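Sequence in, structure out.
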Amino acid sequence: MIAIIDYDAGNLRSVEKALLHIGEECVVTREPEKILKSDKVILPGVGAFKDAMDNLQKFDLIDVIRETVAMNKPFLGICLGLQLLFASSQESPGAVGLDLLPGKIVRIPDTEGLKIPHIGWNSIEINPRSRLFKGIPNGSYVYFVHSYYLQAGNVEDVAATTEYGTHIHAAVERGNLFATQFHPEKSGTLGLQILKNFADL
């Protein structure tokens, strides 16, 4: 059973639909007991960093997430869910993230000819050691929607990168923690394969 954490940050149903499509049992929930009893956990999300952290606090989910990660369950952050795994974001000065991985979230620099937010398909360079991208061809295209991006503190954690006005760390993995800045649930067949790789961990 895969728990999809519901903290009013959107994008839950498309993740649920994608998981059901690949034959995975899942539940959208904010109940600590269900999250802690699940085999794997996904933290999706769209929106602002501070609002998301405020919601996690409001629903008493911060300690649940920390406990889940400490239990060594596979844990996947998607889009805003990736950004929340880090200590802070330029989007919300003063807001404190989950601080589960080293790195910083910064704004995509203004570049002539490129729109922000970055919305659309971009190719990714894949770390061949990545478990999340097992069987995914290097240079595959995935779907992004974001204005802020990750600069990982440890290059060893980087599972995939992309270029959009700057060098973007598009996915990370360390131990049982996985995260993608792009939306696998909106990235077609390859995105479903990435979710399947997570489900099969």
